[in-house]
Amino acid sequence: MPSFAGFLNMTRWFYNLVLHLLLPFVILRLFWRGRKSPGYRENIGHRFGRQAGLPAGGLVVHAVSVGETLASQPLVNALLQDYPELPLLVTNTTATGAERSRALWGNRIAWCYLPYDYPWAVSAFLDHVRPRLFVVMETELWPNLMAELQRRHIPVLLANARLSERSARGYAKVAGLTKPMLQALTALAAQDAGTAQRFASLGMPQDKITVTGSLKFDLALPPELEQRATALKAEWQLSGRPVWVAASTHEGEEAAVLEIFRRLQARFPNLLLVLVPRHPERFDRIADLLQKQGWRYVRRSLQQPVALDTQVFLGDSMGELLQWLALADVAFVGGSLVDVGGHNPLEPAALSVPVVTGPVMFNFQQITDILITAGALVQAADTDRIETCLSQWLLHPEQAKQAGAAGAAVVAANRGALSRHMALVSRLLSESEAA
Where are the beta strands (DSSP E) in 146-257? Predict the structure, then answer.
């Protein structure tokens, strides 16, 4: 009978076989996605370990897409401040994540796409970069990358780690890949005790797990945000006009939001909807939807200002969600009416904006529960309940302000994950120096 180690080797061998069989389709998909999002056609060599001119011997932070990049912002900023002598490389997987990284940090960091998980691509990338510490944001673990980092004795920190029960069940089905990946980690910073327990049940050694809280609570609001919001409110003549921001919406949610908005307008005819879809490749489709439904709308991408008769402002830009939330009286967080798992409700909460979501918030359930308990968020079962909640807040602004203040208090009370992450970084760098 083969040993367990032999079983693990066979599992990874089969994984690599499938990965290489899929290689032609992986390349075709890159070009296909590049038709709508040109970023996917750029730097294709990065995807296969061909990165030139990157600094070696520093820190790497990998953030998959926009959400992880934004979550990494306080950590990256702290690394830049505390370790100026070490070059910092930020890697992404998606084109939108790449765009956000470059917008946030510019030439303060080096940047590239993380290669796909082919052994030869991963090896070429690490030959060039040779990091002292590799930080992975949230849950982006790949078998060959983790194995190669372990083989080279490069410490790996899984930062701001989160794992829902649903995701844990998925990982458990491929234990032959999951357990070696987790054992290759040097340290894991879990957002909450539930995440820590689920990782431990999958094979992560308990002594490598630290419950740090979520970096999302340490989000830093731009100092000029309030001033910009005040100027926009004056320019758009929003005095006395309520604003509803529907943030990070996905396919199918815009139609639901617009139907809710249509019903709300019967009671609140001067209500302005700021609609912010999650993915830029869908911006034009949402504009077409607004056109077909006969809404009076303007688009951010065309630099069109809001007029008194504007009903919908389409926030079809990247990196400006906080600016729109700073204008809001009430907010809906998307990805929660469809099977996506929701998006970060702390951004509106930090700005003292009351939040309503749909029923599907498994990606942020603990944060959602904390905000519900504080009275800052309503997790609605359906669109009727969302409408009722928004209507109540719009009808009673003092209740909305009270809920918003509760959200801001929750954010303030739960800060501290960043300092705990930085303590782990310091320890791992010290241990790697001593080794």
Answer: 156-161, 187-190, 209-211, 243-249
Q: Are residues 404 and 294 in the same domain?
A: yes
Residue 160: give the domain boundaries. Answer: 4-213+416-434
Could you tell me if 291 and 198 lie in one domain? no
DSSP-assigned beta bridge partners for residue 102:
none
- For the whole prediction, is pTM greater than 0.70? yes
- Chain segment 320-332, per-residue pLDDT in tens: 999 999 999 999 9
Here the CATH number for the domain that contains residue 195 is 3.40.50.11720
Q: Please identify which residue in the block is written with the tokens 């929003």.
A: 238
346 three-state secondary structure: helix
Region of residue 243 (left: phi > 0; alpha: psi -120 to 50; beta: else): beta
Q: Which two tokens stand for residue 35?
A: 């038709």
Residues 6+ apart with CB under 8 A from 219: 70, 73, 74, 346, 347, 350, 411
From 42, 68, 281, 398, active-site residue: 68
pLDDT tens digits, 30-63: 888 888 777 787 889 999 999 888 999 999 999 9
How far, in Å, CA of 209 to CA of 206, rounded?
5
CA–CA dist 204, 188 (Å, integer): 9
User: How far is residue 375's CA from residue 352's CA, in Å, rounded to a whole number?
Assistant: 12
Can 68 be counted among the known catalytic residues? yes
Alpha-helical regions (H) of 52-192: 66-82, 95-105, 119-129, 143-151, 165-172, 175-184
User: Which residues, other chains included, contact 15 with Cβ-Cβ below 8 Å and sequence gap of 6+?
Assistant: 143, 177
For residue 171, what are the CA distances in angstroms to 119, 167, 231, 350? 21, 6, 48, 33
Joined together, the tokens standing for residue 314 give 């389409």
